[in-house]
Structures are given as C-alpha cells and as structure tokens.
Amino acid sequence: MLSYRHSFHAGNHADVLKHIVQSLIIEALKEKEKPFVYHDTHSGAGRYDLHDEWSEKTGEYKDGIAQLWQRDDIPDALAPYIDVIRSLNDTEQLRFYPGSPKMGRTLLREQDRAVLTELHPSDFPLLLQEFRGDRQVKMFKEDGFGRLKASLPPKERRGMVLIDPPYELKHEYQDVVDAIGASIKRWATGTYAIWYPVVYRQNIDLITQGLEQLGIRKVLQIELGVDPDSQERGMTASGMIVINPPWKLESHMQSILPWLQRVIAPETGHHFVKWVVPE
C-alpha cells in the first residue's frame, strides 16, 4: 500500500522504546573490535523535523522524546541514545529526531557498515539525501525482506537486523515470522530486533507463537504501554522482540523500563521484559 508515513509519528513513545533498544544492541556489538553490519529493512526518511506540519499535526513526540529531553535523571545506559539526538539539535530546543537509520549510522565505528532499505517513493529520496556520499552506507529502493534475504549471511558474520514494517496489512505480521525463518537459516548468530505496535493484541500473538514454532532459541520480548489494551484506542503499546539479544539487554531494560514508564505514562502505562523462548 505504501501509504504509511512515519513523519506523523516520529519521536513518539514507540520510537523512544525502539531506538533505546537499538542503541543498546549496537553499543553491545561495539564491545568487540571486530566490525559488524547494521541492516535496516524499513528505513524511512532518516531524520525528522518535529516542527513540520506532519509532526505538529499529531504532536505525538510531545508525549515521547519531549518528555525525556530536559530531564537530569536519565539512566546512564541511555547516554548513547540521547547523545545522537543532541548531535542533531544545535540548541537546547528539540527540533530534529533521528529515524532508525540515522540512529544506527551515528553509533557505528569506522570499521562498521550499514545496509538501508526503503521502498516508499517519497521517503527513499530523503534517505538518499541524508546519506549520499557515505561510504559506510549502502541504500536500496527495494522490498526490505527481499534485500535482507539477498544480503545474508553478511561478510562480517556479526551485526544486527532491525525489522520495522508499517503493519498496514494483517499479513505483515506473518511476513515478519517468515522473514526470520528464512534469515536464521542463513545467519543463525545474528541479532534480530523486531518492532511491533499493539493495536490488536492477537496480532502480536501471531508473531510470538510463530517464532516459537520456528524452533529457535533466545527470543526476548520487551514492551512499553501507555494505555491498557483496547479495540478502540489505536496503538496502546509497542514492543521489541529480540532474537539472540546481547546478554546485558535483559538487565538493562529491566532497569530502564520502570523509569521510562514513570516519565511517559505514569498512571495508565505498563511494561515488561520476558523470554518468549529462553536459551
């Protein structure tokens, strides 16, 4: 359909959770000197202006990153995440927010590389503009899952894949499971991070049950909610399902999530970290 535009949602509570988990995984990969790859299957535009008409129309960032921006009690583990955002804003005023490709690329070292895929005809030119001339970045205007299949296993044999489809169509939940099934056969040791929105809880069950049926191990689920599950309120929560997570990720998120919920949704929110499939 290609109707989804992330500009309306940039910097919201779901972005905050997604990019925190993303940054923690990348920082864990950097603990070893050997190079790694960051692969983004649904990249979007790269960065977003929170003052443009799309962001201001919804104002979702005001209940997301804007709640963290000026705080002085941010957990130490969030420093890389916050530092990337600060690098995009010349003043104390929050205006620009990174998409996942910008977050990932900024955290890479000289020996690492990024593979970015985006199919939307409006967002891909923006992605090109953001990273044109960057030798550590390869960009493709292709189906994200098709490019992922063609790119595995990576030459580095280390790295992470961020899977963040728009979920415009119900079959996309099964598409995620199928993509993981095919990818694990090619690259069993990679870290795969799947973002999901909670609109209808049964759709998330399709992913977790599907992953269980694949027979893979080490599947961690991380979720932050701002409202109880509902059939009427739209997205009430979001989460990350991480396959082969770094060993510190579970403990980091167990520490971060209570703080994050207090900041973003103290009265109505929820959070959890649990193993869908343990090691």
TrEMBL record:
Q: Which GO terms describe its biological process?
A: rRNA base methylation
Ribonucleoprotein listed as a keyword: no
Q: In this chain's numbering, which residues are marked as the site (Interaction with substrate rRNA)?
A: 4
Cellular component GO terms held in the UniProt record: cytosol
- Reactions listed under catalytic activity: adenosine(2030) in 23S rRNA + S-adenosyl-L-methionine = N(6)-methyladenosine(2030) in 23S rRNA + S-adenosyl-L-homocysteine + H(+)
Instruction: One Pfam family, please name it.
Output: RsmJ
Q: Which top class of enzyme applies to this chain?
A: transferase
The entry's S-adenosyl-L-methionine-binding residues are: 19, 42, 100, 118, 143-144, 164
Which residue positions are annotated as catalytic? 164 (proton acceptor)
MF terms from GO for this chain are: 23S rRNA (adenine(2030)-N(6))-methyltransferase activity; RNA binding
Q: What is its EC number?
A: 2.1.1.266
What keywords is this UniProt entry annotated with? Answer: Methyltransferase, RNA-binding, rRNA processing, S-adenosyl-L-methionine, Transferase
Q: Do the record's keywords include rRNA processing? A: yes
What does the sequence similarity comment in the record state about its family? Answer: Belongs to the RlmJ family.
Q: What is the protein's known function?
A: Specifically methylates the adenine in position 2030 of 23S rRNA.
Q: Cross-referenced HAMAP family, in alphabetical order?
A: 23SrRNA_methyltr_J (MF_00934)
Assembly notes: Monomer.
State the PANTHER family in the record.
RIBOSOMAL RNA LARGE SUBUNIT METHYLTRANSFERASE J (PTHR37426)
Q: What is the protein's name according to its record?
A: Ribosomal RNA large subunit methyltransferase J
State the organism of origin.
Veronia nyctiphanis
